[in-house]
What we know:
The chain is mainly α. It has two domains: about 10-165, DNA polymerase, domain 1, CATH 1.10.150; about 180-295, Intergrase catalytic core (hpI Integrase, Chain A). It has ten helices and five strands. It has helices spanning about 10-30, 40-50, 70-85, 90-110, 115-130, 135-155, 180-190, 200-220, 220-225, 255-265, and strands at about 235, 240-245, 250-255, 285, 295. The chain has a three-stranded antiparallel beta sheet with strand order 1-2-3, with no helix packed on it. Strands 4-5 form a two-stranded antiparallel sheet. A hairpin with a 4-residue loop joins β1 (about 235) and β2. The longest helix has 24 residues, at about 10-30. The model is unreliable at about 1-5 (pLDDT under 50).
Amino acid sequence: MNLLNDNTSLDFTTELQVKAKTDLTNNILEEAAHYLKGSQVLELNKTLNKHFERYEIFVEQSTNLHENYAEENKSIVNIYLQNKKLEGLSPRTLTAYSDVINDFVRYVDKHLSDVTSQDVRAFIGFRQSLGNASNSYLDTIRRYLSAFFNTICSEGYVQYNPMAKIKKIKSAKKVKKPFTELEIEKMRDALNSKPENTKTRELFKIQDQALFELLLSSGIRLRECVQLNKEDIDLQNRTFTVLGKGNKERVCYFSVKCQYYLEKLLNFEYSGRTRKYEDCEALFVTKSSNGDYNHRC
């Protein structure tokens, strides 16, 4: 699937003309709003749109309205990301937004108010040409850029939204098949056969068994699972509290078999060389080079 349309130079020129008219109209209205009433500004807008239809408007190439566009772009992107952080996005999602938006800004190398739909198509086409991006990920790029430009356009940082013409990128949806009973038992056998000739190996074997059964019975995300603390687990009611997307808490349930391994794990006593596992708040841990236990990654 080729995401780049065969846009002619005429299409590109027309888009620039529309943008130039929009920018000129908005600049006039912004200044006129200082001495005209609201209804008068609306009438002026109608008049400008009526007469501008008969003219082609261009911005002179020699006119440099954004000499420090790199710094201005950086400031706009930082403000946007700060707002997203206040909305409660996870650090991982914020990083994903930051990577896509900053890659795009570096690619177009112009002020954000001068970005056109063709620039967006060129960037997505460039990412596609690298050969390591699925259509699903390309559409994720489109969604991140769309959210970004929708916000900065509505807040007045730019007057023209280049994402308005960019359509959703379709991708094939595959139905994921669940594990069969045979596959599940084979995975359990593999975990049961792990050696436990030392206390450390015994601890991590029990931990892997508990982790497997918890994922299998609850269906939570792996990242949610490894961030669990011991206090989140209610063995008696076979429930636990997890912090999911958007920092929303929810209660999940686990099986009797999972309860068995979790009980073994929570009652495991082993001090090791330094920090005791029972003194660690994390449920699933990894051992660092200095012997301390930390949240499993």
